[in-house]
Design goal:
Radius of gyration: 32 Å
Order of helices and strands: HHHHHHHHHHHHHHHHHH
Number of strands: 0
Helix content: over 70%
CATH superfamily of one domain: Tetratricopeptide repeat domain
CATH class of one domain: Mainly Alpha
Shape: elongated
Strand content: under 5%
Number of helices: 18
Distance between the termini: 82 Å
Length: about 375
């Protein structure tokens, strides 16, 4: 007995032959200039399985913060299609990132890879899990490497491996290569440009390269506040010393992110030390304190500013006392000692008066 595929081939051949014969017969009776128009092919509609619909539904619910409902959808998807590596990968990511279920996430991601041994996204997901939940840097590196092996243009996996190389292995040249592959695969990858800029500035002493990368990150994403902040830090450094440019970048970072406490803190330092604007600096430290009331350094720096430039002794003492209280609570003994010395210089302690001694400099970030 012929197999199904052989029978189908015969039927198709027969249909072609019959059509050919009919065409010859029609041609013999057709009038000149007459044609028989073929009907246009109907556009094929992709078939979406019920499991795929549930995966999409889960993604929508995750975006809305409905994690348990999303989990229920993915559970149903796996029941409908136990061979869906995509469903296992999605559920593994959900358990890892939103539900704090590391063992469950590991089981799901292992299953996704068992079902689809070349599933690059699942390797990337499992690498994230190993790095963040199990402190398994070598295992994470291995999985990121498999992800880019099976998907050579997988920019996210290159980016993640670059971060791992930089932060855990101190492999700065390898990290540079991976960030570069990430932006080559995705020229719109603003985050990768930003992090490559940090690497060049902090670890490779490539100031011009860092500035170019921050600028490219901003060009790709003009609303990327972190890139403006990083470029401002670089411009305000002695190696570039573009104070006006730094101020403009801090202004833009804060405009885009009004609760950006670090940007306020460093803009205050810039106004104090480079722009001779003590009142502006005082205002920025005040905003920083409102945004991060446990930040002792902001109280300390505002106190120094009030003591040295604004001649506000009462305000300085009050701020030094608040800074001392926080440093004590945070067990920052050296900072506490410096603050107590400042108070003594003003003829005060945390609660009373004290002899005068030399002062220290403001805190840096």
């Amino acid at each position: 007995m012929q197999g199904y595929s052989a029978i189908l081939a015969v039927i198709v051949s027969t249909n072609i032959a019959i059509t050919s014969q009919m065409g010859s017969a029609l041609a013999s009776t057709r009038q000149p200039n007459q044609t028989i128009a073929a009907k246009p092919a109907k556009p094929a509609k992709p078939v979406v399985s019920d499991a795929d619909k549930l995966i999409a539904s889960a993604a929508d619910k995750i975006a809305k913060g409905k994690y348990q409902e999303a989990l229920a959808d993915l559970d149903k998807a796996i029941i409908l299609d136990p061979e869906s590596a995509r469903a296992y990968n999605s559920r593994g990511i959900l358990k890892d990132e939103k539900l704090e279920d590391a063992p469950g996430a590991q089981a799901d991601l292992n299953q996704a890879i068992e079902l689809a041994p070349k599933y690059a996204e699942a390797y990337n997901s499992r690498a994230n899990l190993k790095k963040n939940r199990f402190d398994d840097a070598q295992g994470a590196f291995s999985d990121y490497t498999k992800a880019v092996l099976y998907s050579p243009k997988y920019s996210l996996a290159y980016y993640n491996r670059a971060n791992l190389r930089k932060n855990r292995f101190k492999d700065f040249k390898g990290a540079l290569a991976d960030y570069t592959k990430a932006v080559e695969a995705n020229p719109q990858y603003a985050l990768a440009y930003n992090n490559r800029g940090i690497l060049k500035y902090e670890n490779l002493n490539d100031i011009k390269g860092a500035l170019a990368d921050y600028t490219q990150a901003i060009r790709v994403n003009p609303k990327y506040s972190l890139a403006y902040y990083n470029r401002a830090l670089l411009k305000s450094s002695e190696k570039i010393n573009n104070i006006t440019g730094a101020l403009n970048d801090y202004n833009r970072a804060i405009e885009l992110k009004p609760d950006y406490a670090l940007a306020y803190f460093n803009r205050a330092s810039l106004k104090d030390e480079k722009l001779n604007d003590p009142k502006g600096a005082d205002a920025d430290y005040t905003v920083t304190i409102k945004l991060t009331p446990q930040d002792a350094d902001s109280y300390y720096n505002r106190a120094v500013l009030r003591q040295n430039k604004l001649r506000n002794k009462t305000g300085a003492i009050q701020d030094f006392r608040l800074a001392a209280k926080l440093y004590r609570e945070q067990s920052k003994d050296q900072d506490l000692q410096e603050t107590l010395e400042r108070l003594q210089k003003l003829g005060a302690t945390e609660t009373g008066v004290a002899p005068l001694i030399p002062v220290k400099t403001p805190k840096k970030r």
